[in-house]
Amino acid sequence: MKWLRPIVGVTLGTWLLVGLGYPLVMTGISQILFPYQANGSQIRVNGQVVASQHVGQYFNQPQYFWGRPSATTPPYNPEASSPSNLGPTNKLLVEHVKARIKALQASIPGLKVSQIPISLVESSGSGLDPDITVQSALIQIPRVAKATGLSEGFLTRLVDQHVLGPQFGIFGKDRVNVVELNLAVYEALHPHQSS
After folding, report:
1. Subunit structure of this entry (predicted)?
2. What per-residue confidence (pLDDT) applies to 193?
């Protein structure tokens, strides 16, 4: 029975150190050094949380820019983050892509298939991607302008103001956060209702 006491002591000590102490210390450090990120990168409008900067939102209204398709059900469900797992020869994937192309062409008259960026018809790996390419935003301007009454020039400037460079300056391409861009559109339409 001599061996039982050290085993229990080491187990409890390890649990307290690794299971309780370490998470509390890391949480405290992150709250001090990175409070915005540690609390979910929340975007607030009039003091209320409306979104997270790093989780896409589902937009399908013509007056807003659309993000990447989401493979989650319902779309952009953070509790079900996952890719579609459909391969390039899968008939269901081909049907989804064709339906997305058709929806884009219906919403933007004259849009050719060759003009549609791949990121607007294929879902992201997480199903929660908040960003689209700059081209993906620019081709939607005619639809958003028609639905909102905002000029195409104004919307182009809005897109330009929301272009983010590559991640850490080296990974990927320039991109646009759809949630932040759509909040800017909302603010332009409702200047006295948001802050």
Report:
1. The system is composed of three essential subunits: KdpA, KdpB and KdpC.
2. 65
